[in-house]
Amino acid sequence: MHTIDCEKFLTMDSPDALVLAILCDFKGRDERDMKLEELPSYQIAIERNKDKWVSQGISQGIISSAIKMITKFKLSIEEVAKELNISIDELKKHIDKP
Length: 98
Prior knowledge:
Structural class: mainly alpha
Shape: elongated
Order of helices and strands: HHHHH
Low-confidence stretches: none
Largest sheet: none
Mean pLDDT: 81
Protein backbone atom coordinates (compact mmCIF):
# COMPACT_ATOMS: atom_id res chain seq x y z
CA MET A 1 0.00 0.00 0.00
CA HIS A 2 2.82 2.42 0.76
CA THR A 3 3.92 2.41 -2.88
CA ILE A 4 0.54 3.47 -4.34
CA ASP A 5 -0.04 7.19 -4.89
CA CYS A 6 -2.75 8.37 -2.50
CA GLU A 7 -4.15 10.76 -5.12
CA LYS A 8 -5.83 7.82 -6.84
CA PHE A 9 -7.95 7.12 -3.75
CA LEU A 10 -8.48 10.76 -2.76
CA THR A 11 -10.29 11.50 -6.01
CA MET A 12 -12.75 8.60 -5.69
CA ASP A 13 -16.25 9.26 -4.39
CA SER A 14 -16.03 6.59 -1.73
CA PRO A 15 -15.45 6.85 2.03
CA ASP A 16 -13.67 3.49 1.86
CA ALA A 17 -11.22 4.93 -0.66
CA LEU A 18 -10.52 7.80 1.72
CA VAL A 19 -9.54 5.31 4.42
CA LEU A 20 -7.24 3.49 2.00
CA ALA A 21 -5.64 6.79 0.97
CA ILE A 22 -4.30 7.19 4.49
CA LEU A 23 -2.22 4.04 4.03
CA CYS A 24 -0.76 5.12 0.69
CA ASP A 25 2.22 7.18 -0.45
CA PHE A 26 1.71 10.93 -0.07
CA LYS A 27 4.68 11.57 -2.40
CA GLY A 28 6.36 14.02 -0.07
CA ARG A 29 3.19 15.95 0.73
CA ASP A 30 2.52 16.64 4.38
CA GLU A 31 -0.51 14.59 5.41
CA ARG A 32 -1.51 17.30 7.87
CA ASP A 33 -1.89 19.79 5.01
CA MET A 34 -4.45 17.61 3.25
CA LYS A 35 -7.92 19.17 3.32
CA LEU A 36 -9.91 15.98 3.74
CA GLU A 37 -13.16 17.80 4.45
CA GLU A 38 -13.08 19.16 0.87
CA LEU A 39 -12.94 15.70 -0.69
CA PRO A 40 -16.16 14.24 -2.15
CA SER A 41 -15.68 10.97 -0.25
CA TYR A 42 -15.43 12.86 3.05
CA GLN A 43 -18.70 14.67 2.34
CA ILE A 44 -20.39 11.38 1.45
CA ALA A 45 -19.27 9.82 4.75
CA ILE A 46 -20.54 12.84 6.69
CA GLU A 47 -23.93 12.77 4.97
CA ARG A 48 -24.33 9.01 5.48
CA ASN A 49 -23.64 9.21 9.21
CA LYS A 50 -25.07 12.61 10.19
CA ASP A 51 -28.48 11.31 11.30
CA LYS A 52 -26.88 8.56 13.39
CA TRP A 53 -24.55 11.03 15.12
CA VAL A 54 -27.38 13.47 15.83
CA SER A 55 -29.52 10.66 17.24
CA GLN A 56 -26.68 9.43 19.46
CA GLY A 57 -26.07 12.97 20.69
CA ILE A 58 -29.72 13.48 21.56
CA SER A 59 -29.85 10.14 23.39
CA GLN A 60 -26.72 10.99 25.37
CA GLY A 61 -28.20 14.39 26.23
CA ILE A 62 -31.40 12.82 27.52
CA ILE A 63 -29.48 10.29 29.63
CA SER A 64 -27.23 13.05 30.99
CA SER A 65 -30.24 15.17 31.90
CA ALA A 66 -31.94 12.20 33.52
CA ILE A 67 -28.92 11.44 35.69
CA LYS A 68 -28.72 15.08 36.73
CA MET A 69 -32.43 15.10 37.64
CA ILE A 70 -31.95 12.02 39.80
CA THR A 71 -28.73 13.04 41.52
CA LYS A 72 -29.11 16.80 41.85
CA PHE A 73 -32.86 17.15 42.27
CA LYS A 74 -33.34 13.84 44.10
CA LEU A 75 -36.12 12.65 41.81
CA SER A 76 -36.86 8.95 41.63
CA ILE A 77 -35.66 6.87 38.70
CA GLU A 78 -39.27 5.98 37.95
CA GLU A 79 -40.38 9.64 37.82
CA VAL A 80 -37.53 10.65 35.55
CA ALA A 81 -37.94 7.65 33.25
CA LYS A 82 -41.65 8.39 32.87
CA GLU A 83 -41.12 12.12 32.32
CA LEU A 84 -38.37 11.67 29.71
CA ASN A 85 -39.99 8.61 28.12
CA ILE A 86 -37.02 6.28 28.58
CA SER A 87 -36.93 2.82 30.08
CA ILE A 88 -36.07 2.37 33.73
CA ASP A 89 -33.64 -0.43 32.84
CA GLU A 90 -31.81 1.78 30.33
CA LEU A 91 -31.55 4.56 32.88
CA LYS A 92 -30.28 2.19 35.59
CA LYS A 93 -27.54 0.95 33.24
CA HIS A 94 -26.17 4.48 32.97
CA ILE A 95 -26.57 5.31 36.65
CA ASP A 96 -24.75 2.16 37.77
CA LYS A 97 -21.69 2.91 35.63
CA PRO A 98 -18.62 3.61 37.74
